[in-house]
Amino acid sequence: MQYMCLIYNAEDNGPQPGTDEFGPYMQSYMDFTKEVQDAGKMVGGEALEPIATSTTVSVRNGKTELVDGPFAETKEQLGGYYILDCKDLDEALHYAAKIPDAKYGRVEVRPVMIFD
Amino acid sequence: MLPPIEAQTLITRLIREDWGRILSSLVSTTGNYALAEDSLQDSVVSALEVWPRKGAPRHPDAWLITVARRKALDRIRKGETAKRKSDELALWLEQHRDDPDDRDMVIPDHRLELIYTCCHPALEEKSRVALTLRALGGLTTAEIANAFLDKTDAMAARLTRAKKKLADAGIAFKLPEPDDLHERTDAVLRVIYLIFTEGCHASSGQLMREELVQEAIRLGRILTTLLPDHAEAKGLLALMLLSDSRRLTRRGEDGSFVPLDAQNRARWDRGRINEGLALTKAALTDGPAGPYALQAAISAVHAEAATFADTDWAQIVALYDVLYQRHPNPILRINQAVALSYADSPDAGLQLLASVEDEDKLARYQPFHACRADLLARLGRHEDAAASYRAAIALSQAPEQAAFLESRLHELNAP
Hints:
Chain A is of the alpha+beta class. Chain A contains 2 helices and 6 strands, in the order βαββββαβ.
């Protein structure tokens, strides 16, 4: 089964660029990505630019409306994701716990829907 | 041929005793909890129809499984299950279409997988409790709803959600990985203990809620059978048995609450006590004492005292110290304060209570105020005691508790 691990964190929380912790933090992401690739679990995954770059689109009565910023005005924002192919939820949860931001923010694990 | 009433009784007994084992075997073959449960339900309906007419089969449990497999096949063919994997499963079920009447099969016991699945921490806690009662205890949705004072519709919706999550989120029907075993077993113990405490909070007349205590003990027994080397599984069963040994004496004939010091110890259930004491001993010698074993040990000290005055209070105080060191929960200090008030003095108990009185959650915790009231009353501080009794009465949920505290408050003012 494929699981999407959605990585949520407040942007000012956790290691910040320019600090001593940032290098090892990035390295831990590279290590994690390599681990899931080597284990044959990696389907995809990306980091997202900060919410300052985000634009939200909606169409009402045929008219497209744009709003600056993310859809949800919560402190914790989606910052990136992995899609992992795991044998069951336990395995997906086990990998999700290893995502570096699980230590600072939260990782939501959701199965990718299968249409059949 | 079996008369109808006996067939009915046989089916009821099978459901009580073997539901979990039969269901676990079906989940194991179908890999789909909801399909297994629905098919077993279908099979029971068939049994109720066929057995009274044609007589009970020689191997009733094997009959239920064989018929349930056919029902599962019907459900798959009707397209009730997700397409994926169902072809393979249909083929397997096709090949295992035995005659239900002359088959003696070894039914593999997969109840341990079933219990870990039902208690999976990815499910909401209340759903874990409900699912465990349904799957392992064979309780109906209406019975579970009744026990938790919920509407049947709401409980049915909760169970449906939980079963959907099991299937769609890929919660596997298996034993936990070695790394997770400890935490996952704790989760199972917690579910059983929650069922037990829910039953203990039943008011008189709430029969289905009272039944939860016996259900929890039954689940505790199943777990100790399946995990014979697990000290805390024994500790939990011991704790429940020892507490239940005093069930009949906890209430007067009029349903009123009777505290430990006024209970008729001759009516304590010796069978429960002996079993509980043996299990406590085993739980304490099997490894480092866990919280259930320690609580069982405390309950055991009460069980071994011939009278209230004979209680080894110092021993109880010491056990609470060990428990508190490992699990610093302020609620433990309340119970310890009671023990200390007898081992030492009510004043010492009061001082211990004072050490946790700033804890936020205790301000609205009934036993804190009830305990304080009792200690103050024994010290002759009647006005302070009355204030604490009133606070405790206001926070009481069970009417028996409130009535008991009212009577204590009344005694204060009596000469």
